């Protein structure tokens, strides 16, 4: 999962995560992603990891860095989140 997300961001937004641009860098403050790119990223994550964003997740500033994106996707794909209610 980690490499898929990282590869997508690096290819789509023409950046490279390294010592000078760590994975916890704010992609918005650094000018990497704008609102259009954010929507593209959300659609990619939904398709790639088979989940749907809730409105509050789309507007809750949860996808600001690669680190936070990974954590969010882990939570969305955890059994506690995806398991049907008894």
Which labels suit this protein?
86 residues; mainly alpha; 0% strand
SSE topology sketch:
Elements (H helix, E strand, L loop, with lengths): L1 H12 L21 H15 L5 H4 L7 H12 L1 H4 L4
Poorly predicted ranges: none
Radius of gyration: 13 Å
Globally, the shape reads globular
* Helix content estimate: 40-55%
What portion of the residues fall into strands of 2 or more residues? under 5%
Order of helices and strands: HHHHH
Count every helix, treating DSSP H or I runs of 4 or more residues as helices.
5
Tally of domains: 1
Count of extended strands:
0
- Mean of pLDDT: 89
CA(first)-CA(last) distance = 28 Å
Main sheet, how many strands, which sense, barrel? none
Structural class: mainly alpha
How would you concisely characterize the structure shown here?
It is built from five helices and no strands. The chain has 86 residues and is mainly α.
Could you explain the architecture of this structure?
There is one protein chain. The protein has five helices and no strands. It has one domain. The mean pLDDT is 89. The longest helix has 15 residues. It has 86 residues and is an all-alpha fold.
